[in-house]
Amino acid sequence: MTDAPRKRPRAVRPAEILTAADRGLALKAWLQHHKIGISDFAINAGISRAGMSRYLSGKTDIAEIQQDTADRLLRAMGVSDEDAWALLGIPTTARSTFRSFRPYPLGHGSMPAATEHGALSVRLDAPLFGSVSLPVGAILRIELHNPRYEHQIYRLRDDRLFAVVSGTPMDASGAVLLGGLAGVDFVAR
């Protein structure tokens, strides 16, 4: 009779995150919740397995990592900078370097020019898909956080845009609502 392999205990996110060890445990709990292996996450983030172990144990404080490492970690997580700050308890003093340069609203990269009415124009680098399909090169006019339009535009974890009919529940991990599709311009190639 062989012994069944023992399951590792589940990490539990601390109720209050104050220390490097708390932040490491919060990241470990997040990885387990999303069923992401530590080695796979380290590879996706471009971080050594030993480095990940130091972050998860709290030997190296995630809040104090270099900005380029934070950018890779945030991209691998696929959550907005602000959500990661809350999830990992990143102190306000560390947020100027614990951020990514992904496009708004996921990161702190350059935001497309917004008009005075809270609208922005986005040129599609990849086709728009979902309830509306549009080709590369189309320029979307999006009213920020405006539910009155028939189609709502979300930015997915991989930075592609996705359209859904207003009122449709969106349950994609890491999807961020940009706003309502107010119009489309097509430019000749």
TrEMBL record:
Source species, domain of life: Bacteria
CDD domains membership: HTH_XRE
Stretches assigned to the HTH cro/C1-type domain: 27-84
Name by which UniProt lists this protein: Helix-turn-helix domain-containing protein
Organism: Deinococcus rufus
